[in-house]
Amino acid sequence: MEIACNVTRQVPLIAELVNLATTHWRGGVSVQPPAGEDLATAFAAHLGDRTGAALRADPDAGRHLGELATRLRQALLAERPQDQAARINAMIRRYGAQPYLTEDVGQPFHLHFHGSGGTQAEAMGGEFATALALVVDGYGPDRFGECEAHHCEAVYIDLTRNGSRRYCSAACTARAKTAAYRSRRHT
Ligand SMILES: [Zn+2]
Question: What CATH number is attached to the domain comprising 126?
Fold first, then answer.
């Protein structure tokens, strides 16, 4: 399977943004999702220095990120493939994603899809929306889901070969296994 390597770099960031901004339970723990500046600061910690600094410098970044996270979650968890495609297409249009080749330090030219809104958060909106479109194109519509472990609302994006992922993290996979083992012993 050929998929742009930039997409595989965006995928964990997409999941992290959605899980930071939209979950009240994560990995079995009750969490208060950050908003506004707190969200921008928390998400910037997952980005490179330059991108993170650009994000923190924008006073509106937290609001934009919160809106983006909500849209991404709705697209990821849409029940029907046609709704999912419509939501991803709407994000691509909204953020004005533009494909362009760029050469980062020490890397060959590769394709980015920044949005054209002018802020870092909007640039990421275009990038993330296009990355989801490329995942659907390359892997099909069933590669997104909500963690099935108890008390976890985190989403996952499954780029494994067989598409068998059901949990957001190794920790939730282990929790779910333990819970299944306990319930078998008690029946
Ligand atoms: Zn989980």
Answer: 1.10.3300.10
Q: DSSP secondary structure string, 31-55?
A: -----HHHHHHHHHTTS-HHHHHHH
Centre of ligand 1 to C-alpha 175, Å, is 9
Total tally of structural domains belonging to the chain: 1
Residue 187 has pLDDT above 70, yes or no: no
Residue 18 CA to ligand 1 center (angstroms) comes to 13
CA of 77 to the centre of ligand 1 (A): 15
Q: Which range of residues forms the domain containing residue 85?
A: 5-141
Instruction: Encode pLDDT of 59-116 as tens digits.
Output: 999 999 999 999 999 999 999 999 999 999 999 999 999 998 988 777 788 888 999 9
Q: How far apart are CA 94 and CA 102, in angstroms?
A: 22
- Between the CA of 96 and the centroid of ligand 1 the distance, in Å, is 32
Full-model pTM = 0.93
The answer to the question of residue 157 being in a domain is: no
Question: Does residue 19 belong to any structural domain of this protein?
Answer: yes
